[in-house]
């Protein structure tokens, strides 16, 4: 409907909506008649206890109606809908009835059947028959005024006759047909949404939503990693190379000018500033995505990270091979942030980083012997790490009693066959 009138009206959607509403009116009328007959028969025969057996049949009428409605739903909704009924615990009709009567899906289907009989069916009938009848009446009036020119056609607050009535009748019929196509599609979409809500399996719908969210999250992670690598490549191949060239030229100029004079002093100061800017840029590039992590994997990158840490750190990470890039990046930055927090807050004398991969689950622990008392605060660094871990379906747990030690544990599922050889990895930028 949002694709433009021409595209919408030339598609099969209005016709399928009309077929859905018209068939819904027929099914709704059949449900109304059947419900009335079963209810009256049960009430009359209840005096001799036979009618009590018909009362469960009123509720179970929703089961076959739901099967028909799931088939009809394919007219306007291509996604399949399953009922989610359980298999009976034992063979035989009595076990089947007991199982169905104890299911929430059966009562939802019965509620939908009642709604179809007393509400949805009449609305479908009104829309599916009213619009074609009104359009046909306008066309009939237009043709009548053309055949009998002296016939007067009353249109709302004015009357027309002759060619004017014919033109007005055709235009109004076209307008009613177009607006009716939108109205039928809108009503059919609402009916289908309610049918899917009541007749679909809640667990299946929830699983589909979770799968869609997980897929969207994976796409975001991949896009983020690609953008980060692009920034790293641009910094490495662009600004960093220019700074290297500038530093070399300033160094040559410094040698040529010697050590005396105002110009030599200015060039020497500029040379030192360029060297510091180059060092800072290299730190930024390292923070965006470490080249060592891209080239050699997680254990060497963590070893280098521990070597540069201000707190004494020991790394014990043993992995059988390379992990998915998103997992490696997450583990690296969690360890990096944890070491930074140790230096800032823990007053620790020693930090141990352990990492293992078992049953396709990566576990990384950062333990320090500091003062403890760490907690996850809103807006804090640990909350950011928790969010980063959640992006790759990981979990972050913190144990930090007052007095220490503090243990930060990251667990990330890697999936079957997550490890890969160096040849299977994409080339670094």
TrEMBL record:
Reaction it catalyzes: ATP + protein L-histidine = ADP + protein N-phospho-L-histidine
Domain Signal transduction histidine kinase subgroup 3 dimerisation and phosphoacceptor: 227-292
Segments forming domain Putative sensor: 20-199
Keywords associated with the record: ATP-binding, Kinase, Membrane, Nucleotide-binding, Phosphoprotein, Transferase, Transmembrane, Transmembrane helix, Two-component regulatory system
EC number: 2.7.13.3
PROSITE patterns: PROKAR_LIPOPROTEIN (PS51257)
GO cellular component: membrane
Bilayer-spanning residue ranges: 18-38, 44-66, 110-133, 139-160, 167-189
Top-rank taxon, per record: Bacteria
Coiled coil location: none
GO molecular function per UniProt: ATP binding; phosphorelay sensor kinase activity; protein dimerization activity
InterPro entries per record: HATPase_C_sf, Put_sensor_dom, Sensor_HK_TwoCompSys, Sig_transdc_His_kin_sub3_dim/P
Name of the protein in its database record: histidine kinase
Organism: Actinoallomurus bryophytorum
